[in-house]
């Protein structure tokens, strides 16, 4: 991997040894009050397309806290965490760097609106998930989700 | 966190932004051929005590591959991965640094023996897990495991 080679050339302390970047993603089921679908965001930066809301876990932050924070930032929703769907860590899942994502199924009882980073937020019925326009491995993740429910 | 403060002082490229260190741990059920318990290792380095076999995920390596590699290195076992028990990421779970561990339930059909790093390997009956001598949050993990089965 390119990053490892670069790291070797630099005088970097041992505690920044390369480790996959830890991320969280949320499959948010909207009940308002009836089930109306799940939330996807439209990305403004490459890779372009639809994605599950999510982001990086900070050093010193648990994945549960990161999930809550990222869902609020990206969708304005206060979510309830229901279930860990899986950890997705294929080194090629993100074209930018090696990320490992903890994917949680969540619930919320209001409507999403795009957060500070101004991404578009939309509810998709489970029968209308735009699989062809999903970035990263989110198509695989959502197929696993549909198989699980 | 101390590491974050130190990182700010150094001229470190953006791609080494602090992220929790990703690890894997395995709860290996031994069937030889009947179920005889799970494997714990006795640590040679601090923190001292018993622990689930496990270790760091390399950059560019999936958690599944890391699990297979670490179980082989520490117990000499070729494991079958059965189930993701959970992701344990409390920033205080490891006294050395912030780690996030993907814990998998696995199976193996032979007897463990300590690997290259010369840790002691032992099979423990589920009724004889040494909860008081477990390091990190492995006591919590194994309690969750016993609640799940």
Mean pLDDT value of chain A: 91
Write down how many β-strands of chain A occur, each being a DSSP E stretch of 2 or more residues.
Answer: 7
Judged by helices, strands and strand pairing, the structural class of chain A is alpha+beta
Helix content of chain A: 10-25%
Low-confidence stretches of chain A: none
Count helical runs of chain A. 3
Oligomer: homodimer
**Biggest beta sheet summary of chain A:** 7 strands, mixed
What integer value in Å does the Rg of chain A equal? Answer: 16 Å
List SSEs of chain A in N-to-C order.
HEEEEHEEEH
Terminal CA distance of chain A reads: 36 Å
Shape of chain A: globular
Q: How much of the residues of chain A is beta strand, in percent?
A: 25-35%
Q: Which protein chains make the most extensive interface, counting residues with beta carbons within 8 Å of the other chain's beta carbons?
A: A-B, 35 and 35 residues
């Amino acid at each position: 991997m390119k990053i490892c080679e670069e790291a070797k050339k630099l005088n970097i302390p041992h505690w920044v040894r390369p480790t996959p970047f830890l991320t969280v993603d949320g499959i948010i089921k909207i009940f308002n009050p009836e089930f109306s679908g799940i939330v996807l965001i439209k990305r403004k930066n490459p890779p372009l397309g639809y994605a599950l809301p999510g982001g990086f876990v900070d050093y010193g932050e648990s994945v549960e806290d990161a999930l809550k924070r990222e869902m609020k930032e990206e969708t304005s929703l206060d979510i309830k965490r229901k279930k860990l769907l899986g950890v997705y860590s294929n080194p090629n899942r993100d074209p930018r760097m090696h990320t490992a994502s903890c994917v949680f199924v969540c619930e919320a009882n209001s409507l999403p609106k795009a957060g500070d980073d101004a991404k578009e937020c939309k509810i998709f019925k489970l029968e209308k998930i735009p699989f062809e326009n999903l970035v990263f491995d989110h198509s695989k993740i959502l197929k696993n989700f549909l198989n699980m429910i």
